[in-house]
Design goal:
- The complex is a heterodimer of chains A (71) and B (148).
- A two-stranded antiparallel sheet of chain A has the order 1-2.
- Chain A is 54% helix and 11% strand.
- The two termini of chain A are 13 Å apart.
- With 148 residues, chain B is mainly alpha-helical.
- Chain B is flat and about 55 Å long.
- At the A-B interface, helix 3 of A face helix 3 of B.
Amino acid sequence: MGNKLKITNNIRRLRLEADDMTQAQLAKRLGVTRQTVAAIEKARYSPSLDLAFQIADVFGRRLEQVFTRHD
Amino acid sequence: MPYAKRSVWFQVITTMTVYIFFGVSFWNGYTAGSYDEPDGFADLGKLLFLLVFIGIVVTIVVNIVGSILLAVVKKGRDVEFIHDERDRSIDFVGQKISQAVTGIGFVGSMALLAGGVHPALIFFLMLSAFALGDVCGNIARLLAYGGD
């Protein structure tokens, strides 16, 4: 209990695949700041479940296709 | 720079400005022996109300002037007013640190009061603890934002 799991993501790759979507464009669609998107991409901030699902929805992927948990 | 981080800088400037005004006013009164008079604490209370008023004015001025200056410097680009979940998460960390520092300052002040230090000085120390707690919490927020 209390072990912090490392969570990585494919957001940068998915952005590039989505017509080179910028961080600012993604941030606007999510209603967050560009800095928050940058922090999530670099795994410096773990988004809420709600935001994580929104990100997956933007790219039309399932949550586990965007975020990966490492034990 | 996100809006929330900008607000933290504005808060630091406001707190420091108001605290310096209070500190100088208090110290002038204290060294003049004003708080030894029978109605000395009433004067201290009035000073505190003045402080609240000054705090409101400085907050408004710093926010308006700061936002205008930033908009001019950035030429209207990248000036957003979003406060998202990461900002709230960082706010929470800042609040915890602020409360811890304020709490330590309060307990320390009570210990000094028990040790016989002048009550007016204790009053000053308690308000200093609030100001220090506020600044420490805001510094923690700025560190959490990093290079954003």
